Amino acid sequence: MYFLQQKVISMPTETSKPTFMHYIDTPSYDMELTSKYCKTLLVQLFNKICSEVSPEEFIVLDTISCHQDLCQRDLAKLILKDRANTGRILDSLEKKGLVERSNDTKNNRLVRKVNITDCGIELLESLILRFKPYHEKMCKIFNDEDLLILRASLKKMRDSIAQLVEIQI
Amino acid sequence: MYFLQQKVISMPTETSKPTFMHYIDTPSYDMELTSKYCKTLLVQLFNKICSEVSPEEFIVLDTISCHQDLCQRDLAKLILKDRANTGRILDSLEKKGLVERSNDTKNNRLVRKVNITDCGIELLESLILRFKPYHEKMCKIFNDEDLLILRASLKKMRDSIAQLVEIQI
DNA sequence: ATAACATTGTTGCATTTGCAACATGTATTT
DNA sequence: AAATACATGTTGCAAATGCAACAATGTTAT
Question: Which of A91, A101, A103, A152 is the most exposed place for a label (fewest CB within 10 A)?
Answer without folding.
Answer: A103
